[in-house]
Amino acid sequence: MKLEEALTEYNRLNATKQNENDELRVRNAKLEFEMMQLQNANAALQLATKDYDALHELFKVSKMDVTTQQQRANTLEQRLREADEEKKALVRELQAAAQIVRMDIGVNTNPLPAPRNTPNGANLPVVRDPLTAEPSRDRNLKEERDVLVMDTVVVHPPSRLPPPRKQAIEHAAQLIPDLPDDGNVCFTRPFISTHIGGGSQALISNIASPKPLALRFGITSYLCPNLWENPWCPTSPGMAGYMFVGLGEEIHKFVEPEVHELFVGVARTNYRLMGRYRAHRVEPLTAEEWMTLPEKVRSKYCETTQRKAKDSRSVDGISAAYERGELRVPCVKLTCLDFKEDLYNRLKAQKMEQNSMNSLSSQRSIKHELPVTRSSQKRPRIEEAMDVDESSCKTDDSDYVG
């Protein structure tokens, strides 16, 4: 009986063990399957990591390329700006070089032309303009050049600008008008007054009775500083510069920015249209800046100070006060806003018409005043030879007051 019970227990235990072995084999198979899945996932993760690393490297390279390209773009942009500045400087140099008459703060340094040879050695009387007293020119030039050439002057660009003043206008917009003659034709103050309006004496000219050109272009005022008292003024249309205005009754002018047309006197009776400018008071000249001005400019400005500011001191005393910094020259910054090319062309056309009329009048005067003489050896009348040569004779009316 006991043997049978023991055998039964043995079989039961053996069956239980078999069941447990089966369960372990199933669990082992599951674990092996899960381990294979993990291995596959790990392999995929490694591949993804490699892809990520490759993409990251590619991103860094691309980023470096973008930075390099940006640096190259910035360098090219800087070079373009420098080239543009060089181009503008070259244009200004060409404008200053390719001219007929060179002026140095209002003083004409162009020598007088030699007299022409005439038939039989006869000396033709030279008809001179009462203002300029310059000899007549040959009529072998084109008509437009003939009537405008003596109204065309060039001055040297403003020189000896102290570095701070130069830096303050270096980056100001400089408009270069598209004109075949670079805007070099000049006009007299009476001519400007006649065709635009305003007075012909004051530096600041307010137009009470505007002329048709003033109405057409909306001009209500204009400024007329000159280079012999304001050597820092613009010398070409569109350029920036300074003028020394603010004495006496003008002490409060330009404290707030003002906009005016600007004509600059480049010779005693010649004013050049520069454009429409913004004028704004800036820091007065220091004693050191005062001393950089030419002696003639300082002397003239001291006389102006004595007159406008009603200063009782002598010119030398006023000059000493400027040198000590006790007095300081008021300074107005001039920056160009635009240039009315149509206005300039209309003024130029009026000047051409006026000069043509004056030229014809002068030619009639020459013909009327020529003496009739006869050669001791030849009988033909000198006046007939002169009529033949008359096509090469032209009077000069450069500074005719318009």
List the helices and strands and how they pair.
Layout: H1 2-97, E1 102-104, E2 107-108, E3 137-138, H2 143-148, E4 154-155, H3 163-170, E5 186-187, H4 189-195, E6 204-206, H5 212-217, E7 221-223, E8 241-243, E9 258-267, E10 270-282, H6 287-292, H7 295-308, H8 315-324, E11 331-338, H9 341-369, H10 382-389, E12 393-394
Parallel strand pairs: 1-4, 7-9
Antiparallel strand pairs: 1-2, 3-12, 5-10, 6-7, 8-11, 9-10, 10-11
Helix pairs in contact: 7-8
Give an overview of the whole structure.
This protein is α+β, with helices and mostly antiparallel strands. It has helices at residues 2-97, 143-148, 163-170, 189-195, 212-217, 287-292, 295-308, 315-324, 341-369, 382-389; strands at 102-104, 107-108, 137-138, 154-155, 186-187, 204-206, 221-223, 241-243, 258-267, 270-282, 331-338, 393-394. Helix 7 (295-308) packs across helix 8 (315-324). The longest helix is centred in the first third of the chain and has 96 residues, at 2-97.
Strand proportion? 5-15%
Unreliable stretches: 99-150, 153-157, 374-402
Order of helices and strands: HEEEHEHEHEHEEEEHHHEHHE
The major sheet is characterized as: 7 strands, mixed
What separation lies between the terminal Cα atoms? 156 Å
Radius of gyration: 44 Å
Count of helical regions: 10
**How many beta-strand elements?**
12
User: Helicity range of the residues?
Assistant: 40-55%
| Structural class by SSE content | alpha+beta
Mean pLDDT, all residues = 78
Apparent shape = rod-shaped
